Amino acid sequence: MSWLARLVHPKDETQVWKGRYYPYDLIKELVIAIGVITLFAVLLTILLSSPDDKPSTIAQWSKQKPAGFITAAAKELNGTSETAEYGPPYNHSSGGVQHFFIFHPQRWLGVSHPIDTAKDFVLKPLKTIPGDAALASAIAQYEAAPAKTRTEWGEAYAKPLEELAAAEEEKKTPPSTVAVNEATGSVTVQASGAGPVPVMMQRLLSLAQSGGLDGSLLTSRQFYQTDYTKPLLFMADGGLLGERAEQQHLLGEQWGLMNETGSYPGQPWLWLYALWYQVEPMKSSPNADIQVVLIMLVLSVAFICIPLIPGIRDLPRWIPIHRLIWREHYRSLEHG
Question: Is there a contact between 125 and 216 (Cβ–Cβ < 8 Å)?
Fold first, then answer.
């Protein structure tokens, strides 16, 4: 009998077994299987474990890149950072609100985690520094000034830092108004008309380098300090997390969605989500997140409703592959 004949007419193996029976120790087999699997799991964990990279901290960032920290802090104080202009769930701004036609879920859910970047990232941490009369006077002067004056001070202080960032990007000579000493981690900004902002920024840099700002941003009413939202947002506004993600190939340009550091692919089932971010108009849309979510929602509902969709539900009748797979069952029905 040829292999094709055996495939179409396989041997009937449903008859009652008339040969010898042997004892089988199921418990012994289970223990051996668990032991082997455990051994392989331990060996593979040792040989192929995930990389244990140290977490980024504001203290580390402010020491290694003091100018970047000061620039980010100035934006937080001025209310021009990405977090300050993001919108819900942090504030009522409309800068980063995702929407699609009548769908505005970000606005519907509202501000659930309120953050005032000037107060939470700058003023409140500075007020925790004791015994500094100059700092206390600078904070009092800043808080007593009108909003317009505060904005003018912040812009005057941020201007030299913006010139420094532009010079570094274009690889030009840095402006003389900003002096950065990476050895000591100090930054001196010569900004006229900046009011008390230079004093506040210098003290904030010192607080950050001492590790005090990390602790200040983690302070909450909870017994366990596990809410890292504020320090993560601060570092993200300064570009630190983006730089680290680029170094670890986590930007999505190489592998798509990721869940591991380094060049390790993420969960394979996320490819369908990552796919839509590479297709227009989602690829260049500022509302790509809500668009992808709606696309996946429609596809998921369509998948659930397959038994109800005419044409698609009839495919098994038109292409009866299942009858080939379960041919013995259907043959028994025909002969029964």
Answer: yes
